[in-house]
Design a protein that fits this description.
Length: 1043
Amino acid sequence: MSSNPGIKVQQGPGRSTRQQALDDLVMATNSSSIVSKRSVERIYYPDEPHFFRFFVKKFQRRAPLINRGYYIRLHVIDVAVRQFLERPSDKTKVVVNLGCGSDVLPWQCMTRYPDHCHNTKFVDIDFPDLIEKKCRVIKETPELNSLLTGLKTDVGNHVQLQSDQYVQIGCDLRQISDIELALSTFLDVAQCEFMFVAEVSITYMETAGADSVIRWASTLGQAEFCLLEQIIPDGADHPFARTMLGHFEKLKTPLKSVFTYPDLQAQQARFASRGWSHVDVSSLWKIWSSDQWLSADERKRIDAIEPFDEWEEFALFAAHYCVVIARTYYGSPRMVPISSKAQEKLGVPVLIPDADVREYSGTRGQRRFGAAMRLRNHLGEEFLANTFGHGTNTRLRSYDLYAKESPLGDIKTNHAGPNGRMCHTITDLGDHGSLLVGGRTSPSSALRDCWLFKKGTNEWQRAEDLPLPLYRHGITRLGGSSLALLIGGKSDSSTIFDGCLLYQPSSGWIECEISETKYIPAFGSLLISHQETYHSVANDGVQFYGVLAGGILQHGTIARQILRWILTLPKNGKPTISFTTLPERIDSSAEVMDTTNNHDELISRFGASGFVSHEGYLSVIGGIVADGIVMRDLDILVIDISGTSYEIISACRIAVPPRPLLIGVSTELVDGQLVVMGGGATCFSMGTYWNSVCYTLGYNPNSPVHGSATTSSNDRKWTFSRVVEVTEATESQSGSIAPCNGQGALTVDIPRLQISTADAFLAVLKAGKPVIIESGDLGNCIKTWSSDHIVQQLGFDREVVVHEANTSKMDFNSKNFAYVTKKFGDMMNEIENGHKLYLRALSEDRPSDQPANIKADFPQLAADFQLPDALSFVAENEFSSVLRITGPVNMWLHYDVMANVYCQITGSKRFILFPPSDVNRLSFAPGSSSSSIDVFSNLQGPSLVGTHPHEAVLQPGDILFLPPLWMHTAAPLSNLGIAVNIFFRNLENGYSSGRDVYGNRDLAAYEKGRQDVARIANGFSKLPLDMQNFYIKRLADELAHKI
């Protein structure tokens, strides 16, 4: 076979050293990919033969988002190849995998579709080094080579392995003439029909080289091409695109074709201009929703495999990957419709409102899937809170407080309240307060508790629980009343609530009767109510009106429904609700009706927020749509819903940098300003994007202006103020902490310092007082140590010994917990679901006689953790480094003999410390370093009068210095806490010489002194009791005077 004329290929001498190094980096992307594919293989296809396992030494369960992303990638390739194999043909079918890596497509096809593989040859092509390794695995693995007949290796002409069913070609894809020569050794091309597969492979090539491969493939007669690779449909500055591009740049494997072919239209033109007469193009997100690729039953099966709720992040990922199915046959060239052009055909003014940004400091403000709430201080000034949600590594039991610039006064709030959660709602019910409803911990653990935030006292009070746990529900205040309507939501990872609930302050939750419905149950819908209340003549009651839009249906696709609802509250009887379709308003003056340009899909969003004005203008903000991402010009839509149809009036673009990601944000409309707080998303395996600023937009939906920007008359912008931690509520569920009335101990806040030199830390050590060290560099662990990451690094099945308690207040003396052995993955899942577990890691090799050492015990994690340079004394005198992972349990009151630093990595924790001088007031038994006093319950009571408690609240990145013998107890403020606790020797001598695994064995002098005390006491034992007391007290007084 001769090289085809007119095709420019890269030829000549061997690659340079630098070019070879870059090729090696491209090959390295295979290693991560096959680990993820192995995870999908094992979890999603349990009943099939597994082949990736032969190329992956150790199974690592990936996070649900990664699993689902790789599942859809594998599924697309499988469907495309299966359809090719099933198509009748007299010719030999050849499936060529371009840049195959360690993919096992041939073996999957031969076992899944054996009847269609009789006259088929599978060809893998990749770099020679990678193919050689793959060949070696095949030769050494009976489960692989037993399916191949006529097997031979080192055939020549770049053919590494050849059999009747399968061939390997070790060749650079840029060397097309070499590939042609290799194919000619075992194929008669004229008698073949080709299927080319390129799954995220040729995008690493220079674009000209990749285009040459595409053109060359079209010259081989009857051929198909399945391309799966990244796109940037809304530009390189889209937060997901920026994260994705940065990830591959960091790996030094930049995506080459994505800038020349950034979207579906460009990819379609790419193939159509290179010899492919029939081109279908779609995004992975559109494919997920297409019954042609994935049936509703299959999507339900996937949902049942593992709990999943990363829908926005899945859509972002899938919308940035395209699938091209191209053919050289089936008639003349034609362009298949790519997707709905609704986003391009909107035809309304795109407004750019005045905008201001205030940058977050460090990880402050990094909170997603929380809920916004309005508060006021004693001067009537308004504040905003972004409550609970997910932080950098875990769910948060706190809220971020925002204030306008230069407020006249501060705001005081009560700290007791709900547990940490995400995907909950907070609804302002006017004077009645703000109603928090439900939410979840993990996707399979929904919550049913409800709370009212009382505006007069700024404290949480427990409200009536939901009749069933719910998250991702829609809820709205009904007009100007103190009532709320709730529709939809999920009660667990697979069940959608199909009812409607009415909240009344006097009677709690009441189920509504649904009549005349077009509503299909969904979760994540946008629910709003008009401001007006109407009288119902029919039953002497009242009626409320509103709109329900979007959400996700039971089979995992966006609900394209925009419904007008009417809720009737009769004077007597059950409330009823009806739903009718809210159609788009048609321009009756148009000469030709355009019925194809329906904009329902732009409004039918998942995870959007919204506000409605008195005039009936609905603002829809952010979320995802059926096409995937919301284009930048449509960040915000303003829609007239005042009548029985809707009309999109205008759109708003947030033009101020940095470009926001309107996913997981909390929004609030205040005095002509739209405030956007928090937000962000996990960008698949490529990193996490966080909005780095708070946005204040001049925004007045009461008067949407056609064609001009909206301006706010309020120049004071919103800015992040502080984090407010929420603690456990009292038994009465009032959310208030009883005042001490002068009887409780006075708590002192432990000071916060920034320490930049070793001398500065030595001064702290010499002072012997606890401090919180801020802004110390602890390494990448602050960003990476999520629950999923740690399990991935350490292995799901690794066994550890943990404390398992049946109460949140562990007591070492009464041993109200058990030591149990659990798999690491199970432990993390149980902690995520609220189980009372606590891990204090021990030495992996010699737990009974060696102290813990994170570098030896958890080397997979140790590389991400470091001590700041200023703490070099700690590192040089380290005794042990302990990994601590905490669920919702308190650590008992105790003291450590060695000084230590507690480095908070994930979550937040509250510490109470007492100075050594308080030891006689805290019920420490002789010889014991632990006390049974429940400090947190007694802190405001009389039992701790005379003590000197010091309080610290640690956030990720904080380092607490604990001097020797300072007694301390700790309570988590988040569902998951991860820390590294480093004990170090600060005395030159005096430590006990015996075994000391935990670093809290009392000093040698004390242990010897206790023996002396026993002998002294024995010397007085034969005297009368009153004489014993007299002389022992004198000796004690004498001993005290010696100090």
